[in-house]
Amino acid sequence: MRKLKSIDLFAGIGGIRLGFDQAFGNSIQTVFVSEWDEHAQKTYRANFIDEFGIAGDITKIEEADIPTFDICLAGFPCQAFSLAGQRKGFEDNFKGKARGTLFFDVARICALHKPKVIFCENVKGLTIHDKGRTFNIIKGTLNELGYTVHEKVLNSRDFGVPQNRERIYIVAFRNDIDSADFQFPEATDSSKRIKDIIEEEPVSAKYYLSNVYLETLRRHRARHEAKGNGFGYEIRDWEDVAGAIVCGGMGRERNLLVDKRQTDLTPVTHIKGEINKEGIRKMTPREWARLQGYPDTFKLPLSDVHLYKQLGNSVSVQVIRAIAENIKTVLDKEDKE
Q: Are 187 and 158 in contact (CB under 8 A)?
């Protein structure tokens, strides 16, 4: 099979690319990368070596300036469609950037280059936004471009990582490619639990909550429970799976652990009060990386605040790999014919 060329749009820290690289091996080559967040670019560069730079705002890049490619990888921003957000969809605007319309940048680029495959990942909420009309527009646009669309919601916990994370995956094959046999992967491994991603050694005291902050969380949850809401922190059992990690809000506090291996509870950062005596801590960025299926060889070069955001925004690599392997099967068959 000849080497296929791919582009990585809205690349983040490279999770989709990593999954495809794992599935395709030496038969895939990335020829263009776009990511507008400078901190995500730094993590990306630390892990992928390319002969070209990372392009910034995709809305300012002419489609003709992008090299010819066979596969478009596009985890376009999900904030406009997330169940946790205001769900404005295509009308969403953030700091002058219309996040909801970034899908149409994928469309205009692919309209010119006509790749064999367009792969997209987004939040599950995309499928029901505006009573399904938004999702129908996306699928309809891909159909108009000359693609056969396959879509399915998959849960990361079924693919070898202990995270309850449902996402919609879209695979569009160009109409001249017979994709009738394409199937999304069935669950490969639902056995993993939090204990499988825990740091091997006791983690720094900086990850342990202060007693003052822990009490604040408890009062916060009590107020919500009194109103009939389920919002608040959550302590996960090591034999459980984690809730979906997200980039902000209560993302870390919804996946707290009891870990009493660290005996030196001297604060290493400025905190109010003292470190709690119950052993309650946040997961570390490396543990979050493992929840997303990143190998321990994947470099995490930035400060925790950036890494939590990047990993919460990222994809579950194992799910991407499993889908990519099935895409490869279709393209292998097409190449032989």
A: yes
pLDDT for position 83:
41
What is the number of alpha carbons within 13 Å of residue 126 lying toward its C-beta?
28
Interatomic CA distance for residues 231 and 183, integer angstroms: 37
Q: What is residue 47's three-state secondary structure?
A: helix
Q: Give the domains, in start order, of the chain with CATH numbers.
A: 4-192+311-336 (3.40.50.150), 200-283 (no CATH)
Q: Is the pTM of this model over 0.85?
A: yes
The one catalytic residue in 78, 110, 120, 247 is 78
- Look up 78 and say whether it is catalytic: yes
Spatial distance between the Cα atoms of 136 and 158, rounded to a whole number of angstroms: 27
CB atoms within 10 A of CB 305: 10
Distance CA 316, CA 65 (A): 30
Q: Are 241 and 217 in contact (CB under 8 A)?
A: no
* 20 contacts 71 by C-beta, under 8 angstroms: yes
Q: Please, is 24 exposed, middle or buried when counting C-beta atoms within 10 Å of its C-beta (0-12, 13-18, 19+)?
A: buried
Segment 103-148, tens digit of pLDDT: 888 999 999 999 999 999 998 888 887 787 888 888 998 999 999 9
Q: pLDDT (tens digit, 9 = 90+) per residue, 182-237?
A: 999 999 999 999 999 999 999 999 999 999 999 999 998 888 888 877 767 899 99
Query: Contact, 293 vs 161, CB < 8 A?
Result: yes
Nearest to 26 by CA among 2, 9, 52: 2
What lies within 8 Å, CB to CB, of 53 at 6+ separation is none
| Cβ atoms 232, 250 nearer than 8 A | yes
